[in-house]
Specification:
Blueprint lengths: L25 E7 L4 E8 L1 H10 L3 H18 L7 E8 L3 E9 L3 E8 L1 H9 L5 H5 L1 E9 L7 E8 L3 H13 L3 E12 L6 E13 L30 H11 L3 H5 L5 H9 L5 E2 L3 E2 L1 E2 L5 H10 L2 H6 L6 E4 L6 E4 L10
Parallel strand pairs: 5-12
Antiparallel strand pairs: 1-2, 1-10, 1-11, 2-9, 3-4, 3-6, 4-5, 6-7, 8-9, 13-14
This protein binds zinc ion.
Length: 340
């Protein structure tokens, strides 16, 4: 998933001080040429708040879905596709499913399915980290560019790790690109006239090591495996540039990723001012669903006669969008169903 626009431009690059103005709901690509590093910073304010506030999920579920939204924005915006990028988990933990849809070029929507009782006991037991909520299963990333194009799907196992861990695993196994991802989500409390109000904020940074000589991109394996006794496990020395990149990105604190007063430019400047960092135009993002009466009608018409007939309640068929809670109502005859 390399951003095709991030190739070396043949133009003189103007140099300036980092912007102090933080812009919410954007994805900003950057490059640290001296270390062969590329990355993206995601900052989400109103977009993530709109999605999470609307669903009103239990707090840890909202936080986990927020992380998935940041990860999806990070990856989807890099694809330059005409279509959609879908991140979906399916697992046996209290949160059974997360779905985040990135619809090119700038729309995002998301929802979660979870077991209320199991989430409540996870909260009571204080086991609300992403890995515990997801449990075991898999995460699928799908690129869907319409019915005439092949769908591309990448799969990675969920095994009790966080979404950050899953992203690292994916890039190492599937793309063979050394990658570090940081994701942060928090509720910001603000004093107001009608009592304190809260709003969700989220952010993330992805760093990838993309040297021209591919042999430099070798990384230490995540799981060394069981070496037979007496055999020295095979160790790989990571490239100095990547060691430095990882060290720098590991210093990023959650608050830096969500702080509304710290711009994405200042954040990457703070990290990479020594080797030098070049930023690219940030792309905007917004929370918007892609459902429509026409789409729902077409979906209903694709169902079997029996299924359609069973959906009739009180003389009508009612469908609620799981992403945005919009409700669409149809007379049975509109979609070829028999009135009950
Ligand atoms: Zn919708």
């Amino acid at each position: 998933m390399i951003d095709p626009t991030m190739t070396d431009p043949q133009i003189a690059i103007p140099s300036r001080a980092p912007s102090a103005t933080a812009t919410d709901d954007t994805v900003m690509p950057f490059e640290v040429a001296k270390l062969d590093l590329r990355g993206r910073v995601v900052r989400l304010g109103p977009a993530v708040d709109q999605i999470l506030a609307r669903h009103a999920y239990p707090q840890p579920v909202a936080k986990l879905l927020g992380e998935a939204i940041v990860l999806t924005a990070m990856l989807g915006s890099a694809l330059k596709i005409d279509g959609r990028f879908i991140l979906q988990t399916q697992s046996d933990g209290p949160v059974r499913m997360l779905v985040v849809d990135f619809i090119a070029p700038d729309k995002v929507r998301a929802c979660a399915r979870f077991d209320k009782a199991r989430v409540a006991s996870a909260i009571a037991a204080g086991k609300t980290d992403g890995g515990a909520l997801l449990g075991k299963g898999h995460l699928a990333m799908t690129v869907d560019q319409g019915p005439d194009m092949n769908r591309y799907q990448g799969l990675v196992a969920l095994d009790g790790g966080s979404l950050e861990d899953v992203a690292h695993e994916y890039f190492l196994r599937s793309e063979q690109i050394p990658t570090r991802v940081r994701l942060a989500v928090a509720e910001e409390l603000r004093a107001g006239e009608g009592g304190p109000s809260h709003r969700w904020r989220a952010g993330g940074i992805m760093l990838q090591f993309l040297p021209k000589a591919s042999e430099r991109a070798r990384v230490a394996d995540l799981h060394p495996g069981d070496a037979p006794q007496g055999v020295q496990p095979h160790t790989i020395k990571e490239d100095d540039a990547w060691v430095e990149g990882q060290a720098l990105v590991s210093t990023v604190e959650d608050v830096e990723l969500i702080d509304p007063s710290l711009s994405s430019e200042r954040l990457v400047y703070r990290l990479f001012h020594e080797p030098g960092v070049r930023v690219f135009r940030a792309a905007p993002l917004r929370a918007e669903c892609s459902c429509s009466r026409e789409n729902v009608e077409a979906m209903l018409k694709s169902f079997s006669q029996d299924d359609r007939d069973h959906m009739v309640e009180d003389g009508k068929i009612s469908v609620t969008c799981e992403f945005c809670s919009a409700t669409y109502q149809f007379a049975p005859a509109d979609v070829g169903a028999n009135p009950s």
